[in-house]
Write a structure and sequence with these properties.
The structure holds two protein chains of two kinds. Chain A is an alpha+beta fold. Chain A has 27 helices and 24 strands. Chain B has four helices and three strands; from the N terminus they run H-E-H-H-E-E-H. The chains are: A alpha+beta, B alpha+beta. At the A-B interface, helix 1, helix 2 and helix 4 of A face helix 2, helix 3 and strand 3 of B.
Chain lengths: ~900, ~110
C-alpha cells in the first residue's frame, strides 16, 4: 500500500509540494499565534527547501519521479532531432517487427504446447534407420496390430494413442452431387479422455467407441468446423454424413482450442481408429503412435519395455518378405525405436519448415543486430555532442548512475516506440508468411495469436535491444571527466574506436545475411528451372473416383467423351499425376533373383499418356489398348543405366515384386527421365505399366480411382475445370471428380518453401545492406565533422583532395574489410546448418562469395561519397577560425 | 535519511502515544504536547517532527486529514490507525525493555 501511494504520489508531485508547503505555513501561523517570534519560528524550521525535499522524498518514490523527469526530457531530446530519431525508430521497428514475426511463426509451429492436459508428458513413437532408398530417416508411421501389442505392454506406465495422418476426404451430408471436402483424422477412442478434453457439445469418444473394426460409425467435429460448417448450430449433433459407403453420425464437438495434433493442419472431423480400413492389416503403416506418460514416469524405461515385443513383430514380418533383397531386410530389422517429445504436436510441416524458420530467425536476428549497431553509433555520436551538458551535470552534483539512467531512459523510449511500430509490422507480416507456406488451394492453418508468449518475447527483445545499443553510450557518458570535458579536450579517438568496431560487426553480419540470401535465391532459381522431363503447360489433373470400381473399358469411354469436349486437346489417364506426392514402389528381379536393393517406382498409364505429357520415346513404342499388367512396360533412362549399363533395354524382360506378388514384363519402350516424386531426390529407376490389370485368372480387374490428364486449348486450364467436372459425371454417373489441380500447381508446390525462403531472405538482405550503408555513412560523416580542424590543417599545409579522401576513409574501410572477412568466415562456417535447405549450390562457389562482397563494397562506396565530398570541400580558413 | 537527534528512537513513540490519548492534532499541537507533557524538558524540532510524521503516514501508522480552522486557513491533522495502535504497543514494550536494561546497568555499575 505504501509503495503504491508513493508511486501514485509520483504522478502528482506538484500538488504534493504544495500540500507540504501549506502544512508548514499553517504550522508557522500557529506558532506566531501562540506568541512566538515569526523570524525565530521560521529559523527553527531550518532551510525551507531542504525540509520540503526531505518530506517529499518520504512521500513519493523518488526513483519514479526522476524516471518521469528523464522520460519527459528524453522525449524532448528525441523530438529535437526528428529526422535521426525517425530513422532510428523505423529501422529498429522493422528489425524488431521481423524478429517478433519470426518468433511468432516459430512459436506457432514448433514451440507452443498443444492445448491438452500435461503436453510435456506427450511423446511420439518413431523408427529411426535406413529407408528403402538407403537414406537415414525417422519414420513415425505405425501399424495397428503392433500398436495394440505395445499398448498392452506399457499399460501401467503410459497410455498409447493412435492418431492417423490428417487427410482431406470427400464427404456428403446429402447426395453424391453435394460432395464437400474436409480434413479427417482417425483417433483412438480414449484420446480425448487421455488429453483431458471436455466436449463443447454432445459427447466425445471413449474407449467403447473404438473396440470392434468397422462397428463405430460415429464422428466428433472440431469446434472450428462446427462453427464454419454449421454456424454453431446445436442441431448438428445427430446429423449424418457419408464417406465412401459408410454413414457416420455426429455425436459431439471437441473443445475450441483443440484442432488435432498435426500442427499446421486444423482437423475438421475425428473418427474412431476402428473405422479405418487398415486397422487389422499387419503391414500398413498409417498413423502416429503417441505415448502419454503417467505422472512420475520417464520415457526411457517405457521405450525399453517396448523393444522386446517390437523386435519380435519386426522379425515375424521380415520372415514374410521373401525375395526382398537381404540388405533391405537387414535395414528393416536394424530400425531403432525412439520416443520423441511431442508437446507441440508432430507434423510434416514441422519437419519441412523447422530448419527454414530457424534460418530465417537467425537472419532477422542479424538484421536486428545491424540496426542496433546503427542506433548505438547514433547515440554515441549524439553523446559526443552532449559531453558538455553531461560534464555540467556531473559538476553540479549529478550521480554517475543518474546519468546512466537518463541515457538508458532515452534509449528505452526509442526502443519502445520502435517496438510498438514493430508489433504492427509483425501482426501484418506473420500471417502474410503463413499464407505462403502452402499452395492457395490448401492453406496452412497456424494459430498466430498475439498471446502472452509473443508479447513477452517482444518485451524481452525490446529490453535487450535497449541495453544493446543504450548501455555502451550510457556508460561512456557516465564516465565523463568534467574538468577535461568542459575544457573541450576529451580524447576524441576512443569514441571513434567503438564506432569502428561496431562498423566491422555490422559489415560482418551484413555479409552473412547477403551470402545466405544469395544461396537461397540460387537454390530457388535452380530448383524452379530444374527440368521435369514433361510439359505442364495447359495441363489439368482430374483425380477421379468410381463407386463401385469400374472396368477399364468404362474409364476409357469417359476419356473418349472428354476428348470430344470442345476446348480439350488431349486426354490420357494414369493412376495418379506426376509430382502429386504419391508413390508406388517395387523391386526388380531378373530370372527370379533380386537385381539390387533399389526400389523402382511404378506408374500405371494409359495409351497416349506419353504424348499428352509430351515425353518423347527414345526407342520402342507406346502402349496399345490391348496391353495389360502383367505383360509390357516402358522404362526410363535411369532404369536402363541401373540394370542394363545404359544400353537400349527394349526387348528385354524383368519381373516385379510388389504387394507380395510377382509379375513378368517385356520392355516395349524407352523414355528419358522424368521427375516423378520429388524434385530434390536423385532420379530413381522408373517403370511405366499399362492401366489395365488382369488378375491371376486372366480377368480384367475393376478400377476404383484414376487421374485424367487433360491438355486444354485454353491458356488458362482452370477455366475448364467446372465443365470437365460436369462432363465426367455426365459420361458416367458412377464416376466423380474429387479434386482438380493444374499440373503447374503440382510442380510449383515443389518449390514453395524455397520461394518463400528466397523472397524473405532477399528482402532482409536488402534491409541489411541499407542499414549497413546508413551506418557507414553516419560514422564517416561524424568522423569528418569531428576532424574538421585536423583536415583544415592538413589542407592548409598542402594535402591534396585525394590524400584527404584516403585519410578520411582509410580506417573505416579497413574495418569494413575486416568485417567482410569475418563475415565470410562466419558464413562459410554456418552454411553447414542450412545445407538441407540448399539445392545444387555450393557455398564455396566463387560467385556466391563474390556477390555479397561486391554488393557491400558498392554500398560502402556510395555511403562514403557524401562524407568524402564534405571533407574535400572543407575550407581550411573557415574551419580553423571556428574556435 | 533522518538526521541524528537527541530524541532518536523515542520521537515516533511519543507522537504515537500523544495521538492515542488525544486524536486529531496538527503538527504544532503535537510539538507543544511533547514540550508541555515532558515538563519543558524535551523539545521536538520542526525539522525532525514533520519528516517523522510523513514517514509514519506512509507506513500507515497514522492518517492525515485537512480541516479548515476558524481562521480560514487549512490545517493538516493526524490520528492513529489500527496498525498504528499495534505499532504503539510494540514501541512501548521495546522502550520498557530498553529503559529497564539501561537502569539495570546504572544500578550495577
Amino acid at each position: 500500500m505504501s509503495l503504491w501511494s508513493r508511486i501514485f504520489n509520483g504522478f502528482r508531485g506538484e500538488r504534493l509540494s504544495r500540500e507540504i508547503d501549506e502544512e508548514f505555513q499553517s504550522h508557522l501561523e500557529e506558532a506566531v499565534a501562540q506568541g512566538r517570534d515569526p523570524a525565530e519560528a521560521r529559523r527553527a524550521f531550518g532551510p525551507a527547501l531542504l525540509q520540503l525535499e526531505e518530506s517529499r522524498d518520504i512521500r513519493l518514490a523518488s526513483w519514479l519521479d526522476s524516471l518521469r523527469a528523464d522520460a519527459v526530457f528524453g522525449c524532448r531530446q528525441l523530438l529535437k532531432r526528428k529526422a535521426t530519431s525517425a530513422a532510428a525508430v523505423l529501422s529498429l521497428a522493422l528489425a524488431i517487427g521481423a524478429c517478433t514475426a519470426a518468433f511468432s511463426l516459430i512459436d506457432a509451429l514448433l514451440l507452443r504446447p498443444l492445448p491438452v492436459a500435461h503436453p510435456e508428458r506427450l511423446y511420439v513413437l518413431a523408427r529411426e534407420g535406413m529407408d528403402h532408398r538407403g537414406q537415414f530417416r525417422t519414420n513415425e508411421s505405425f501399424e495397428y496390430p503392433l500398436f495394440r501389442q505395445l499398448r498392452a505392454v506399457v499399460k501401467d506406465q503410459a497410455e498409447m494413442i493412435a492418431i492417423s495422418y490428417a487427410t482431406r476426404t470427400d464427404l456428403t451430408y446429402g447426395s453424391d452431387g453435394q460432395m464437400e471436402r474436409a480434413w479427417r483424422q482417425y483417433v483412438s477412442g480414449w484420446m480425448f479422455d487421455s488429453f483431458g478434453l471436455k466436449p463443447a457439445l454432445g459427447r466425445l469418444f471413449t474407449e467403447d467407441d473404438d473396440r470392434t473394426p468397422g462397428a463405430h460409425p460415429y464422428a466428433v467435429l472440431s469446434y472450428d468446423y462446427w462453427t464454419n460448417r454449421f454456424g454453431r448450430d446445436p442441431r448438428a449433433i445427430g446429423r449424418t454424413f457419408r464417406i465412401g459407403n459408410t454413414l457416420y453420425e455426429i455425436v459431439g464437438v471437441a473443445p475450441a482450442p483443440f484442432s488435432g495434433t498435426e500442427t499446421g493442419i486444423a482437423i475438421d472431423i475425428f473418427l474412431p481408429t476402428m473405422m479405418h480400413g487398415s486397422v487389422t492389416v499387419r503391414d500398413d503403416s498409417w498413423f502416429r503412435a503417441f505415448v502419454k506418460l503417467k505422472p512420475g514416469i520417464v520415457a526411457e524405461p517405457v521405450r525399453q519395455r517396448m523393444l522386446g515385443p517390437y523386435q519380435q513383430v519386426q522379425e515375424e514380418r521380415a520372415r514374410g518378405y521373401t525375395s526382398v533383397p537381404q540388405e533391405q531386410i537387414a535395414h528393416f530389422l536394424q530400425q531403432k525405436l525412439i520416443l520423441e517429445p511431442a508437446a507441440s504436436g508432430n507434423s510434416e510441416m514441422q519437419r519441412q519448415y523447422r530448419s527454414a524458420l530457424i534460418a530465417l530467425g537467425v537472419l532477422v536476428a542479424l538484421v536486428l543486430s545491424i540496426a542496433c549497431a546503427n542506433v548505438a553509433n547514433l547515440m554515441t555520436a549524439q553523446a559526443a555532442s552532449r559531453t558538455r551538458e553531461m560534464a555540467l551535470r556531473v559538476a553540479i552534483g549529478a550521480g554517475r548512475w543518474r546519468l546512466v539512467q537518463q541515457m538508458l531512459v532515452e534509449s528505452a523510449l526509442l526502443a519502445f516506440l520502435a517496438a510498438a511500430i514493430g508489433g504492427l509490422f509483425a501482426s501484418w507480416s506473420a500471417p502474410f508468411v503463413v499464407q505462403r507456406i502452402n499452395p492457395p488451394s490448401n492453406p496452412a492453418r497456424l494459430v498466430l495469436g498475439a498471446d502472452y508468449r509473443v508479447l513477452g518475447f517482444g518485451l524481452a527483445l525490446t529490453l535487450v535491444v535497449t541495453c544493446l545499443f543504450g548501455l555502451a553510450p550510457a556508460l561512456r557518458v557516465s564516465a565523463v571527466r568534467p574538468a577535461s570535458a568542459l575544457k573541450g579536450g576529451d580524447d576524441p579517438h576512443s569514441r571513434r574506436r567503438t564506432m569502428h568496431l561496431l562498423i566491422a560487426g555490422q559489415v560482418a553480419f551484413c555479409f552473412v545475411v547477403l551470402f545466405v540470401a544469395g544461396l537461397f535465391v540460387v537454390t530457388f532459381e535452380r530448383l524452379s528451372h530444374a527440368t521435369t522431363g514433361f510439359s505442364s503447360e495447359r495441363l489439368l489433373t482430374l483425380d477421379t473416383v468410381a463407386r463401385p470400381p469400374q472396368l477399364e473399358l468404362l474409364w476409357d469411354q469417359v476419356a473418349e467423351h472428354l476428348r470430344a469436349t470442345p476446348g480439350v486437346e488431349r486426354v490420357a489417364m494414369a493412376n495418379y499425376a506426376l509430382l502429386s506426392g504419391n508413390f508406388g514402389g517395387g523391386f526388380i528381379l531378373f530370372n527370379g533373383a533380386p537385381a539390387n536393393d533399389v526400389l523402382a517406382q511404378f506408374l500405371e498409364v494409359s495409351p497416349g499418356w506419353l504424348d499428352t505429357m509430351k515425353i518423347p520415346l527414345r526407342d520402342g513404342r507406346d502402349f496399345r489398348t490391348d496391353d495389360t499388367v502383367p505383360g509390357v512396360a516402358i522404362v526410363n533412362e535411369t532404369f536402363a543405366r541401373t540394370y542394363f549399363n545404359g544400353q537400349d533395354p527394349v526387348g528385354k524382360r524383368f519381373e516385379r515384386q510388389m504387394w507380395g506378388m510377382r509379375a513378368h514384363f517385356d520392355i516395349v519402350g524407352w523414355v528419358p527421365d522424368v521427375r516423378f516424386h520429388d524434385m530434390r531426390e536423385s532420379l530413381a529407376p522408373t517403370v511405366f505399366v499399362p492401366l489395365s490389370e488382369i488378375d491371376l485368372k486372366g480377368a480384367p480387374s475393376p478400377r476404383g480411382s484414376a487421374t485424367f490428364l487433360v491438355r486444354t486449348a485454353n491458356a488458362n486450364p482452370l477455366a475448364m475445370a467446372s465443365t470437365l467436372r460436369r462432363e465426367v459425371a455426365r459420361a458416367q454417373p458412377g464416376l466423380r471428380v474429387s479434386n482438380i489441380r493444374t499440373q503447374r500447381e503440382l510442380v510449383d508446390q515443389q518449390t514453395i518453401r524455397e520461394r518463400l525462403l528466397a523472397m524473405l531472405a532477399l528482402f532482409f538482405a536488402a534491409v541489411a545492406l541499407l542499414l549497413a550503408g546508413i551506418g557507414l555513412y553516419g560514422v564517416l560523416d561524424y568522423s569528418v565533422l569531428q576532424r574538421r580542424r585536423e583536415i583544415g590543417i592538413r589542407m592548409a599545409i598542402g594535402a591534396s583532395a585525394g590524400q584527404i579522401a584516403r585519410h578520411v576513409t582509410a580506417d573505416t574501410f579497413l574495418m569494413a574489410l575486416a568485417g567482410a572477412v569475418a563475415g565470410l568466415l562466419l558464413g562459410v562456417a554456418s552454411v553447414r546448418s542450412i545445407e538441407t535447405l540448399l539445392y545444387q549450390v555450393k557455398p564455396t562457389d566463387l560467385a556466391m562469395l563474390a556477390l555479397p562482397s561486391v554488393a557491400i563494397l558498392a554500398a560502402a562506396m556510395l555511403a562514403a561519397l557524401p562524407a568524402v565530398l564534405r571533407a574535400v570541400r572543407i575550407d581550411p580558413v573557415s574551419s580553423l577560425r571556428v574556435e | 535519511m533522518p538526521k541524528p537527534d537527541s530524541l532518536q528512537g523515542s520521537l515516533d513513540l511519543m507522537v504515537l502515544k500523544i495521538l492515542s490519548r488525544r486524536p486529531r492534532l496538527h503538527g504544532y499541537a503535537i510539538m507543544s504536547a511533547i514540550k508541555d507533557w515532558s515538563g519543558d524538558v524535551l523539545r521536538a524540532e520542526e525539522g525532525s517532527l514533520y519528516p517523522a510524521l510523513h514517514r509514519m503516514e506512509e507506513a500507515g501508522w497514522i492518517r492525515a486529514e485537512w480541516i479548515t480552522k476558524d481562521t480560514g486557513r487549512r490545517a493538516r491533522i493526524y490520528e492513529l490507525t489500527a496498525s498504528g495502535k499495534k505499532q504503539l504497543a510494540a514501541e512501548e514494550s521495546r522502550w520498557e525493555a530498553v529503559t529497564s536494561a539501561v537502569n539495570r546497568v546504572l544500578r550495577t555499575v
